[in-house]
């Protein structure tokens, strides 16, 4: 016992009793603590000495180690969360207008918080950028629907553009997101065998979807109106006033702005696929209106509808 007491006062151990280990490199202090504890146990130190060794060596080292471990866990967790957020909401891919990219990146933090949700900006609903993974999943769903439709499968490439003053990059981003989601929705034209991919190359598009300033609608064709949307050849032109305000008739009939947007995209793209206005009429009171019926002008007693009905599932 006396030998143990004297060896525990060995200068190699005593130097740790002064608390200086806090100032030494953590690794050396930690190993010194372990070594001293083992030495004390191996030499069968008295409970008093063992307690002293524990208090003077291990308590401090253990406390420092715990603080370091907790700090590492906190930093690692925060880093993982940041990386996950960046993966879920990367900067926008290339777009027709390079100016679109920078503002979208500036709104990245806000978009992360609103991922897969929507936020209201005035009357318009602004959706966060669709990440590549979401695009792949949406397109895969559309392709599965098209393959199961029993129709001949066709893949269309479309571009998105703006005509006139129709809002900033955020509005264009939202517009492009809604176009992609709507065209590839399993309730939509994929049931007729069609799928749609976005292209930034204007030379590779089967058609272009415009968001157009109302006063410029007639620049596409005299047959277009500044009140409604239009399709001219391979140009599908969505009237910005309708995009942001739908029509009173449709809103009063219970169709939300989001549903109206899907309706107007599907209707105008339906023209591009070969459909004509009012090729089918309202089948009866409160039945779903045919998609190609000019619902904004008159519902004829039908309920508003944004998806092609069974009788409209064909492509010219
Ligand atoms: Zn039409």
From TrEMBL:
Where the record annotates domain DUF3152, the positions are 145-299
**What are the TM regions of this chain, as residue ranges?**
52-76
InterPro entries for this protein: DUF3152 (IPR022603)
Instruction: Specify one Pfam family.
Output: DUF3152
What organism is the protein native to?
Answer: Bifidobacterium commune
Presence of keyword Transmembrane? yes
User: What is the protein name given in its UniProt record?
Assistant: DUF3152 domain-containing protein
Instruction: Name the segments for region: Disordered.
Output: 85-115
């Amino acid at each position: 016992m006396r030998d143990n007491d004297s060896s525990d006062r060995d200068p190699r151990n005593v130097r740790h009793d002064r608390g200086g280990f806090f100032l030494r490199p953590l690794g050396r202090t930690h190993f010194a603590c372990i070594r001293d504890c083992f030495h004390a146990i191996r030499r069968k130190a008295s409970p008093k000495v063992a307690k002293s060794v524990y208090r003077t060596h291990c308590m401090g080292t253990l406390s420092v180690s715990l603080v370091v471990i907790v700090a590492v866990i906190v930093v690692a967790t925060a880093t993982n969360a940041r990386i996950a957020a960046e993966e879920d909401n990367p900067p926008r891919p290339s777009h027709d207008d390079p100016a679109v990219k920078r503002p979208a990146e500036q709104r990245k933090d806000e978009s992360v918080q609103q991922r897969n949700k929507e936020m209201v900006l005035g009357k318009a609903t602004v959706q966060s950028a669709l990440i590549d993974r979401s695009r792949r999943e949406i397109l895969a769903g559309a392709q599965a629907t098209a393959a199961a439709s029993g129709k001949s499968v066709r893949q269309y490439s479309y571009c998105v553009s703006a005509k006139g003053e129709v809002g900033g990059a955020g509005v264009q981003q939202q517009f492009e997101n809604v176009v992609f989601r709507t065209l590839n929705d399993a309730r939509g034209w994929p049931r007729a065998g069609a799928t749609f991919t976005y292209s930034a190359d204007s030379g590779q598009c089967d058609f272009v979807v415009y968001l157009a300033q109302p006063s410029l609608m007639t620049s596409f064709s005299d047959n277009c109106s500044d009140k409604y949307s239009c399709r001219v050849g391979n140009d599908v032109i969505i009237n910005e006033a309708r995009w942001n305000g739908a029509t009173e008739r449709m809103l009063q009939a219970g169709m939300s702005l989001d549903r109206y947007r899907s309706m107007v995209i599907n209707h105008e793209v339906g023209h591009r696929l070969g459909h004509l206005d009012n090729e089918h009429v309202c089948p009866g009171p409160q039945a779903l209106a045919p998609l190609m019926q000019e619902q904004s002008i008159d519902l004829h007693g039908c309920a508003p509808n944004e998806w092609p009905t069974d009788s409209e599932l064909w492509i010219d």
